[in-house]
Structures are given as structure tokens and as C-alpha cells.
Amino acid sequence: MHMMDKGGVNILGTRATRETAEAVRQVTEEVEYHADARIFVVNRKTEAKTSNYILVVTGGTADIPVAEEAAITAEVLGNKVERLYDVGVAGLHRLTSNLDIILKANVVIAAAGMEGALASVVGGLVDKPVIAVPTSVGYGASFGGVSALLTMLNSCASGVSVVNIDNGFGAAYLASMINHMTERSHNASAAI
Amino acid sequence: MHMMDKGGVNILGTRATRETAEAVRQVTEEVEYHADARIFVVNRKTEAKTSNYILVVTGGTADIPVAEEAAITAEVLGNKVERLYDVGVAGLHRLTSNLDIILKANVVIAAAGMEGALASVVGGLVDKPVIAVPTSVGYGASFGGVSALLTMLNSCASGVSVVNIDNGFGAAYLASMINHMTERSHNASAAI
Amino acid sequence: MHMMDKGGVNILGTRATRETAEAVRQVTEEVEYHADARIFVVNRKTEAKTSNYILVVTGGTADIPVAEEAAITAEVLGNKVERLYDVGVAGLHRLTSNLDIILKANVVIAAAGMEGALASVVGGLVDKPVIAVPTSVGYGASFGGVSALLTMLNSCASGVSVVNIDNGFGAAYLASMINHMTERSHNASAAI
Amino acid sequence: MHMMDKGGVNILGTRATRETAEAVRQVTEEVEYHADARIFVVNRKTEAKTSNYILVVTGGTADIPVAEEAAITAEVLGNKVERLYDVGVAGLHRLTSNLDIILKANVVIAAAGMEGALASVVGGLVDKPVIAVPTSVGYGASFGGVSALLTMLNSCASGVSVVNIDNGFGAAYLASMINHMTERSHNASAAI
Amino acid sequence: MHMMDKGGVNILGTRATRETAEAVRQVTEEVEYHADARIFVVNRKTEAKTSNYILVVTGGTADIPVAEEAAITAEVLGNKVERLYDVGVAGLHRLTSNLDIILKANVVIAAAGMEGALASVVGGLVDKPVIAVPTSVGYGASFGGVSALLTMLNSCASGVSVVNIDNGFGAAYLASMINHMTERSHNASAAI
Amino acid sequence: MHMMDKGGVNILGTRATRETAEAVRQVTEEVEYHADARIFVVNRKTEAKTSNYILVVTGGTADIPVAEEAAITAEVLGNKVERLYDVGVAGLHRLTSNLDIILKANVVIAAAGMEGALASVVGGLVDKPVIAVPTSVGYGASFGGVSALLTMLNSCASGVSVVNIDNGFGAAYLASMINHMTERSHNASAAI
Amino acid sequence: MHMMDKGGVNILGTRATRETAEAVRQVTEEVEYHADARIFVVNRKTEAKTSNYILVVTGGTADIPVAEEAAITAEVLGNKVERLYDVGVAGLHRLTSNLDIILKANVVIAAAGMEGALASVVGGLVDKPVIAVPTSVGYGASFGGVSALLTMLNSCASGVSVVNIDNGFGAAYLASMINHMTERSHNASAAI
Amino acid sequence: MHMMDKGGVNILGTRATRETAEAVRQVTEEVEYHADARIFVVNRKTEAKTSNYILVVTGGTADIPVAEEAAITAEVLGNKVERLYDVGVAGLHRLTSNLDIILKANVVIAAAGMEGALASVVGGLVDKPVIAVPTSVGYGASFGGVSALLTMLNSCASGVSVVNIDNGFGAAYLASMINHMTERSHNASAAI
Predict the structure, then answer these.
(1) Do C and F make contact, counting contact as 3+ CB pairs within 8 angstroms?
(2) Is 0.80 surpassed by the pTM of this model?
(3) What distance in Å separates the CA atoms of residue D156 and residue D130, rounded to the nearest whole number?
(4) Contact call for residues G14 and G66 (beta carbons, < 8 A)
(5) How far apart are CA A21 and CA A37, in angstroms?
(6) What is the largest CA-CA distance in chain A?
(7) Using CB atoms, which residue from D59, D114, D120 is nearest to E90?
(8) Ramachandran quadrant class, B142 (left: phi over 0; alpha: psi -120 to 50; beta: rest)
(9) Chain G residues with CB-CB distance to C140 below 8 A
(10) Which chain F residues are closer than 8 Å to B136 by Cβ?
């Protein structure tokens, strides 16, 4: 479980059961539980401050829990997030019919299991950082995410890097860090 | 080395050095050596008899030796072959600008190393059998073709099956078998 | 789970529990559940139109669930299917006493766990495509199907290709694709 | 080999021998060869435009070739680069006596073989993206970089992501992308 | 389960459930159960006789059960033990603010999962034997402790050796053996 | 290298180069070198004393060096040996047309690489011990003999056991031990 | 589950639960269930006919279920069996104080998990066939029996061969085959 | 290569070729080269000061280079060293006929490849620390030392810990550290 406490205001717990979230509710009413993402958030106050967004894409519907762990973490960290789920490469039209939202993203998080080819294809489309999250989705020779991990490490597309299997939190933390580095600059400009 | 002797007319030797081919030339002048494919062919007489073709695609230029092993084997076995090389998924436009030749193929052989995602993407485009050949091209976590092999086994596209790493011969043999099954039918019809 | 919807007429769900099938029955009475294959089929209307058949063979009885996933999928996709189960290579007579049904098949699906040698032996007997399905049957050094997978990838018989461990659906989809390619030709001839 | 051609001005070839570089020199005198990094660069004109820098750190001296592949690539891509080599975690003082240059980096590339712990320690020190490059340096249970790769994927520090073993080029490309995203903002502000 | 019976006085059982401990209590009241360490001890009489101590450190809180197995085993074997938990390398200050207790240890047991880098960093700080215990803590590419194991085997720090994953008992037994070798000498001197 | 010295009469050295054998010839003229088997034998005097024979079979021609290491070792150890090479399971007729020599063997040594299925098929035919020797013959997913090793360990045929990859010597030693146990009994009877 | 039916007289089922055995009892009262070995035997009539015995040894007590599967199978197959359990190599005296029973065995089955060194040590003591059975006993880097399996395959002692992890049945079947080959000879002599 | 410089007096370089050593000789005549151990030592002045000795044992003769790397390193570090080579467990008498030198050792370094069982057996004999060094000696399923590594990690004997494959230097450094901890105490007593 990752635990993040941002200055006493936000607390985020990953890989949490509903029971854990309810236990937290005994302490404070300000808790939300996200069943898909298995995350609870306490006292959520952050708001995204810029129009830059992080795009979270998945290969299939089974990758959504990891993707939601990433998406909600990124939102709690103060980012605008767009979601584009179930756009695996075996049906390219699902990707190509969404080119606009892909090309305008500031950072992309690509979560995929099985063959994990999504990161390469997306990495070839955009010229922004793509953070690949292999998921443990699959069976047989997917080996609990190892196949997707290897695919992503071998990506021929430039700008792709990889985090641990199912580590939606880590992907979101890094994506947020990159996004805020740009935003701070933007805000700085805006302030002038 | 695979050795194939079709009724005394054609002989094909795979993974052959030029020295081997020259040794064969001592016996018969009717030998051709294909350096890229590391194949020699003796007394090549076959001609493709139908307009059905096998398409051989590769992810990169480094996959070409394996692809040529497949292409030449398929030709020797009496098939028409089209080649589409270096169309890896990190540059989708290279695939999409060749949709016509892809969609009209009767069987596709997809040879790719590194992340090996080509088979899935092609498998999603066509509704014909795709025979995936992982190649040992790559470095680091490509593990001599294992990453590509796993990617291909985990393909989410239907109609994809896999042969051993670098086994261009095996892919071609199977592709030819399927292609001729269709051709025989066609010829049968034509004969009527 | 694979989900296949053929033009609103047939729906097929793999890796389904009886509970899932019963839930579907709330929506339509036209649902059949195959416990062995863990498949449910809705509104099955297809009929095989030709005498060409796909043969499904298994090494042991424990491979039957995967084989049935393949067999029923192939039937739903409009193919005639023959079954030859428990003909593992440790008792060759079980294979050789069934040579006729093996040799007349148009495509063979060979499902086997443990040492997975069935695909090679069958591939050596027929000159038709053999689609090998490693199963996760076994213990110890079978490593959940990895041993059978490797055996099949290393097959010395020509015409053998491999799909993911336990992927009966994928094998059937490919077998059906090949079978229909031939059938269409046949039908075309017949029509003349 | 990675090959990069930036608008006809710069060409960069990785994993190149001196022979390759000399062959290029037959075409143009404007070629430099970097033996350590195994890179040649043609017609190098870029200059870093901002004070933001990418820091390249290594665990040992044997990791320097990969680090130099990263450093020179980043320079060719127009970044200011600082180097801090041989600061492995078995001698923490080597890291802690260089805290200033570490903390002021905009992006860090951490190349390490053997136990590969450098990325985690650096990732714990800075709040900027750390791109970890496992190197194939080591022997025995280093398994050609696999141990370092696993260490880096399991990093408990936030902000760390990983590229393929020995992929200095890929790390630099991503680092440059992130660095320029910030710089562009800065320049934008500066322009105002 | 390890079982240790020191001259009829102490009995120690590892990986024991509370139920096992209660069953032992039917035989003798002199049993203590340590839930965290999953250890029961019977008739504990030993006392550490010297000021030399074994230090047990962990990377995270999840490593504590293995660390406690080690710590209690060492205490039962007659050693003074100090504990320093949750000092993983992603937050170096947690280690550096405890330098005194680390530097004065006679032997160190370092238990860590995930990237397991703790052993290397501690091994670089002290010039005493460091016994590394990889723990099965983690997810994804931690592979049940294999990543931590490999990291520790590849440690660049001198004086580090490794025991099996989760083998707190074995680490403690060896640490105690080394500690007593020194103590006996000390006692011998003292006796003179 | 295995070295065996039977009572000063026979010496056998495995994995020997011709150079080694020639060096031995400086000491004694009584040395024979077997290039295929990479074995030299000194002062060979043994003769098989019974009609019981050990059968050595191989899947392909590439397995012959390992098979010859086994066959010559067995002969030096005083056994009658029959050879049946290149009878891989992809061509069953090669096996079935030699049933007589197979069924009359006292012990069988089955050497095979690639898919290694030969041991299972032979094990199913005979009711005598089958000693399986995986060979490192193959490419790609044969992984230097690992695939054949796993196939053989998973054999469904009873009476099959396995030795290390390429260990023809070990297989022969064990086969000889079993063969002589029977022979001694026979001789004992004969003596009565 | 292995199922063995010797001429309608004996039936033996391995890996059976007590429930299975009780179900069999509904059909015939002549069923015995061996809980340790997880075996049931029906209508056991065989008796060992000679003084030759198979020795079953184990490294620890946790290996006993696999050893009992072997021992009972061997008894049902008509062999005299001796058991020597918990004689692992970390306490050599346990082996050396039982040298007599070891040296007089006709065949040895050595079952061991963890480091699996027992087979080598026993193989060095006797000059009879040693059939090694790796067991899945252990934790951490024992990897479910893989470590013991590798140890046994690498045995430096001659006369050792290996069966699948936990395959007590297979070891017993082979041991019995060898034992009966000798016995038949003995009986033959006796008959003279 | 490990490089060790003890206060300007001794320099030791591991994994060195004779060429390297000769290059060093250009700088100082005080260099010795140990071909077996692949070590050079400069200006060797240390002498062991106590009767405590480190025992270095090997399973076979092929393990001697690693053992010598350990032995010479330990000597350079000021320890008395005893050697006992080629005492692998397949011939127990080789160990048991040397019990005296084994039992009197202060620390044992056990270097072994193939099945690596030596560490367990020695660990069961002595009650002193045993530092196990897996060697890359072997073939087939020894996997370059991995089998020996796993055997050693799974050792059932207490007091055994493991270093990286072929890491004779590391084993010696740790053994020396432990030996000197005791010696210092002894010297302290002696001084009184």
C-alpha cells in the first residue's frame, strides 16, 4: 500500500479495501472510497490549476483498476486527467479515432497487460513522455504481467519509460511531477 | 538447418553459409545462394500458380534475414510473396499507408524482435491467418527473442499463432500449406 | 474471458461460471451452458455447411476443458468438429488406431499439458495445419503449461504453430478461419 | 543501433565502432567519434539554451560507456549536461559530498549495474524525475543487467522510471523531452 | 519451521501459529508467543552476557515479521539485540540520523524486500559483517523476494553475505555465531 | 570432463579434443580417439559378455555426439550397444519400422534436443528403463536444452528418468549399472 | 493422479483425498487409504518375493508424503521396501550410522526438497541406481522444488537420475522395474 | 575486477590477466602474479599473526581458481589459510578423512559448482561460519552457477551464508573480517 500525506490536507491510501476506508471514516467523515481503483482519499481539496492534462489510456477493460489508481492519484496531486480506456492495439481504429485527445496530452500513462503493445503505439504517436504501466491482467504466458513488462522495456518508440507491474500510483506520481514542472513554468509566465 | 527436398526438383537448405552453397555448387551448377536469408536453393523450378499471395512483414530492418528465410522458402514452395519491411508499430503511418497490400493478403507472416507488437496490430487489421515469428533481434531485456515471443503469444488479436524464435522456415511452410489449401480449391473451381 | 458476438445471432462467452450463464438466462432463455468447456452460448443457430472438419485431439483427459472450449467455439463459428481425446504419445496405439479420422481432418487442434509432445507426433502424421494449445495441466516441472508451450514451439514437425497456454478459443478461431477459407472455395466451386 | 537525424543538421549513431565512424568520415569531415560512448555525431551544431541541466550519475566506472551514450545524446539534443560518475551506494559519502549538483538537476539519469541501488537512493534525494538505466555491468547473479533492472523497477522512491538495459540513448531522449518541456515554458516566460 | 532445542532449556519454534503455541502451552506454561515474528519460545532463560550487540535493520514496516524472527531468535541464543526498523534507502536521512547505533553494532542483519538496497548501503557504512535477508515483501517485479535476493547477492559493499528469502532464523543463527566468537574471546580476556 | 579409470585397464576421457588425445598418445600408443563422441579411450580391453544390449536412440542427427558419448562409454564399461539414430517423433514410421530392436533392448538411452519428445514415445513402447538425455541441440526457445529437459521430466510414460543436459556419460554409466545388475544374475544362473 | 490397474487385482490411486477413498469403498470394501502418502489401494494381494529391497530415503520429515507415495507404490508393485527418513546431509552422522541398510539396497529412491543434496551423497556411497525425487518442500529460493531439481540434475555422483518434482509414483515405478529385472534373473537362477 | 589498496602497502587486483600484471611490473618490481587465482599482489608484506585459520574447501578441481582468489585475498588481508581441495560430496570419505583440519577452522569458505552441496555438508560438520561461494563450473542445467547458488541458499545447515557466483574475493573479505574480529580479541587477551 502506498500512503501519501500532502501537508495534512490530503491523505491517499492505495490497494485499500472498502473495510479499510470505513475504518478511516470512524476518524473522519471526509473520506471517499473508489472501489475500482481500490483507493481512499481523505479531505480532498486539490483542484487542477491549468489546462495541461495527463492522459490515462488502457489496452482493455481489465486494466481499468490500475488505470484508475493512476488517474485518481494524479487528480489528488492536483492534475487535470483525461481517460481513454479499452483502446488496445488489436483494434487500431479505437486509437486513431481518438487522436485529438492523445496528441494534446502533456504526459501519457499507458496501462496494459497481455502483450502490452499499447505503450509503443502511443509512444510512436505523441512526442510527450509516455509512462508505461504493465498490468498483471492476462493468463498463461502473460506470467502475471511479465510479458507486458518486457514488451514495454523493449519499446522501439522514444520517450517511453516503465514502472513496476500494477504500479499505477508510481506512474501517476511521476506523471504529476513532470506535469507540474511544466505548469510551474506556465504559471510563472502567466504571473509575469 | 532445415533441409527440404520436394520430389527431386527443388532442394532448399536454411542457415547455410556461402561456403556450404559453394560446396553444393561442386555437385550441381543449379544452386542459388541468398546471403540475407542464409538459404541456398537447388534447381528452382516452381512458379506461383495463383494470384493469392503471402505477405511477409517486419518490424525493423534487422528482422529482414528471418523474413527473407520465410519469403524465399514460401517462393520455393510455389507461392506468390509480397514483402513489406520495416513497418514497426512505433511509426503507425508506415503500416496504415500500406493498408491495401495488407488487407488483400491471403496469409501474413509477421517477423519482429524487441517488443514484437507488430503481429497484434496486423492481426487486428486483417481477417486472415497471421503467423508470428519472433526474432532474436534486440538487446538487454529482449533476451534473444523471448520478449517478442511472449508478446506474440499474448496477442489480443484473433487469428494469430506463433512459431519458434527466428523460425522463418517453419512460418513459411505453414503459410504455404494454408495458401495452397485455398489455391487447390480455387484451381478446383477454375477447372470446373 | 473472450466475448464474441457474431452479427447479433450468436454470443459466446468463455471462462464463464454456471452463475454467469444463469445471469444471462435472466435476459434470454436461449442460453446453453457447457460446464466442461466453461462456455455459454446464446441463440445458437449456426450449422456446419461442409464435410470439412476440424479435429480436436488431447493428450489426456485433464486437457478436455481446454479442448471443449476449442471444440464448442469452432462449432459456434460454423464448423464441423470431430473429437479424439486422451490419445497421448505415451500410448502410441491410441493414436495409430485412429489414423483415419486424423488423416482426413482439414485442420487439427492439439491440446496437451505435461510434456506436450502430441502436437509434434500429430504434425508428423498429417499435412494439414496443426494448431497447438499448451494446457496448464500437470505439476512440478510442468510450470503451469510452460513445459508444454516450449515443447510445442520446438516442434520438429512442419505445419505446427502455437497459441497461448489454455487458449482454446484462440486456437478455434484460427482453425475456423483456415477451415472457412477452404470451404468458401469449395462452396464457390459447388456453386458453379 | 539508434540513428537520429535532427532536421539534416545533426546525425547521431549509437553502438558504433570507430570503423563505422571512419566510414562516415569518407562522406563528411564533420564527424566526431566518442570511443567511450560508442557514438558518432555528424555536424554537431546544437547548443544548450538554458541553465537547466540533466545530471547523469553512475554507480561505478564500468557504467561510464552507457552513461556517456546518454550524456552525449542529451548534449546533441540541445541540453546542458552535468556528469557525476562512480558514486555507488556502497560509499554514500561520494553521493552526499555532491548533494548540491544533485539537488539542482532538472532531470537525473542514473546508470548502474550489479545491484543498481543508485536510482533508489538518488530518487529519494531529489524531487525531479529520475530515469534509471540498468547496465549489463557485473558477473554471476547480475545476469547481464537483469538484477539491476529488477532493483530499479522495485524502487521505493517516487519519481523513478526505467528503460531497457544499457539503453543510454532512450534515457537521454526522454530526459531531453522533459527538460525541453520545462525550458520551452521558461523561454516562453523569458520572452514575455 | 525451524526447531531449536538448546540443552533442554530453551525451545524455539519458527513460523508457528498462535494455535501451535497454545498446543505447546498444554504441555508447559513456560511458553511465550510472538505474533509478529510467528515464533514461540519455551522456558526462556538466556541473558545476553556482553555489551556487544547485533543490530537488526529493515527497509520498511512490512519487513518487520522477518526482522522479529531474527531478533527474537538472536535474543533466545543469548545476544543483546538492537532494532532499527523502516530505514529504507529512499529516505537516506532515516539511516544517517541513526549512524551511531549502526556504527557500534558488532554484526548487522539487514532485512528488506522490494529493491533490497538496504544491505549495500549499510554494508558501505560499517566494517562489520552484514547478513542480508531478502524478504518476500512487494508486488509485481519483486517476484516474491527474488529481486531483493539478487540485489543483495550483487552488493558492491564488502562484508555482505546473503541467506534465503525470509530466513530470519538463519540470519540470526549466523549472526549469533559470529557475535559469540567475539564474545568468547572477550570473556576469555576478561577472565585473565 | 568425466574421467574414468577401471582398474588400470581402461581409461576414458570425455569432452576431449583431438589435441588432448594426441597428448595422451605421447604416453601410450594404446589410445583411440572418437571425434564424434569427443572421447578418448586408453587400452580398451573390455568385451560385452552377454546378449543383453543397451539401445541408444536419438531424435535427430545433431544429437549423435551426445549419443556416441553414451554409446562408447557403455561399450567401454563392458556392454553390448545397439544404435538407432535420427528416429524423431515427427516421423513416427522411423520408430515403428524398428520396433523389434527397440522392444528387445534391456535398457534404452534416449538422446534428443528441441522438443525432446522421443523419450516419452519410446517409454510408452518398452517396459524397460528409459534414461533420457536432453541435448543442447536447437535454437530459439530450445534454450540450450532446457525445453528438452522439461519435456523429459514431464514425461507421461512410466519408467523414464532424466540426467543433465548433454550428459551422455552419466546416462551410459547408469544404463551400464542396470544392465550389469541383470547380467550378473544371468551369469550367476549360467554358472549353476 | 496416477492410476494403476495390475491385471484386475490391484488398483492404486495417487494424490487421492480420504473422500475419494471413501467413495471407492462404496464399490468395494477392499480399499485401504494411506493419509500420509495420499494413496488408496484396492484389493492388495501382492507380496514381495525376494530379499532384494528398494530403499526410500528422505532429507527431512516434510518429504515423507512423497516418500510414502513411492514406498507404498513400490510395495503394491511387489517389492520389499525399507525406509530411512530424515537423514539430510546437514547431519551426516544420521546417514553414516545407517550405512549397512544403505549399502545393501538394490535400488535407492532419494526424496528431498530445499537443497536436495541427499541424492548426491547417497549416490556417492552406493554403486546401485539412485532415483532422485525433488520435493516441493521449502520456501523462498526453493521455488517449489526447482532448486532441489537442479541440484539433483547436477549431481556429480554416477548412477543418479531424476524424475519430476513430487513424482514419488514415477520413481517407484522405475525402481520396481529395475528391481524386478534383477529378481527375475534371481528367480531364474533359483529355479535351476 | 576488485581492487584493494591497504594503506599503501598492499595492492591486490582480481580477475587480472598476466598482461595486466606485467603492465603493473613496469611501475614496480614488487608484483606477484597468481595465474590460477587470476590475481596480482603488489608489495606483499602482511603476515598472519595468530594460529586461527580460514579453511578454503572446494568440491572439485575446476573450482580451484575461485578458491585461490579467496585464499590469496585472505592471505593478503593477514590471515593464515588452509586449503582442502576436491572434496566434493559424491566421495564423502574425502571429507571425513580430513575432519581434523575442518573442525579446527575458525571460518570456512566453501567453493563449489554443479550441485554445490559441499556447503551444506561442511556446515553440518562445523559450528563456525561457512561462507558459500557458488562457482560457474559445470554444464547444462548448472546454468553458469545458478544451480549451485540455489543449493547454497537453501542449505539446511545453520551458519551458512552465500555470496555472488565466483566471488572468491567477497567471501575472503568477509571471512577475514570475522577472523580478525576474533583475533583482535585474542590479541587483546594476549596483551594482558
Answers:
(1) yes
(2) yes
(3) 12
(4) no
(5) 12
(6) 57
(7) D120
(8) alpha
(9) 134, 136, 144-145, 149, 164-167
(10) 140
Q: Which residues contact E110 (CB under 8 A, 6 or more apart)?
A: E57, E58, E118, E119, E122, E123, E130, E131, E132, E133
Task: Tell me the DSSP string of E21-70.
Answer: HHHHHTT-S-EEEETTTTEEEES------SS-EEEEEESSSTTHHHHHHH
Residue by residue, DSSP assigns E158-176 as TTEEE--TT-HHHHHHHHH
- Record the cell numbers describing residue F175, joined without a space: 544404463
- On the question of pLDDT at D178 being above 80, the answer is yes
User: In Å, what is the CA distance from B6 to each residue of B9, B46, B74, C126, H32?
Assistant: 6, 10, 13, 17, 65
Using CA atoms, how far apart are residues C39 and C71, in angstroms rounded to an integer? 11
- Rounding to the nearest 10 degrees, give the CA dihedral for residues G150, G156, G161, G165: -20
Separation between Cα atoms, residue A12 and residue A25, nearest integer Å: 13
CA distance F121 to C115: 11
Residue of F119, B119, F148 whose CA lies nearest to C163: B119
d(CA E179, CA H182): 9
CB C163 to CB B162 under 8 A?
yes
pLDDT at position B31, please?
87
Amino acid identity for residue B147 in this structure: S
CB A116 within 8 A of CB A147: yes
How far is the C-alpha of H192 from the C-alpha of H190, rounded, in Å?
5
User: In degrees rounded to 5, what are phi and psi of residue E47?
Assistant: -140, 145
Q: Is E80 helix (H, G, I), strand (E, B) or coil?
A: strand
- Closest residue by Cα to residue D115 from A167, E64, E126, E123: E123
What is the residue type of H60? G
* Residue C157 Cα distances to B2, C123, C153, angstroms: 11, 5, 10
pLDDT tens digits, E54-96? 999 999 999 999 999 999 999 999 999 999 999 988 888 899 8
Any contact of G with E, at least 3 CB pairs below 8 A? yes
Quote the CA–CA distance of H51 and H31 in Å, as a whole number: 27
Contact D166, D136 (CB under 8 A): yes
Beta bridge partners of C134: C112
Q: CA B123 to CA B158: how far, in whole Å?
A: 7
What span, in angstroms and rounded, lies between the C-alpha atoms of H91 and G157? Answer: 8
Q: Do A149 and E141 touch (CB under 8 A)?
A: yes
Find the helix or strand (DSSP H, E) in which H121 lies.
helix H118-125
Say how far apart CA H15 and CA H39 lie, in whole Å.
6
Contact G154, F164 (CB under 8 A): yes
573442525: which residue's cell?
H103
**For residues D7 and D42, is the Cβ–Cβ distance under 8 A?**
no
Greatest Cα pair distance, chain D, in angstroms, is 57
ipTM for this model: 0.89
pLDDT tens sequence across D94-125: 998 999 999 999 999 999 999 889 999 999 99
- Torsion sign (Cα): C73, C76, C81, C86: positive
Q: Which helix (H) or strand (E) holds H32?
A: strand H31-34
The SS3 of residue B34 is strand
The number of angstroms, rounded, from the C-alpha of B139 to the middle of its chain's C-alpha atoms is 23
| Residue that has been written with the C-alpha cell 532415483 in this structure | G131
User: How many helices (H) and strands (E) are present in chain H, helices listed first?
Assistant: 7, 9
pLDDT tens for each residue of B67-106: 999 999 999 999 999 999 999 888 888 998 999 999 999 9
- CB contact under 8 Å between A153 and D161, yes or no, is no
Q: Which of B12, B35, B36 is nearest to B24 (CA)?
A: B12
Identify the DSSP state of B133. E
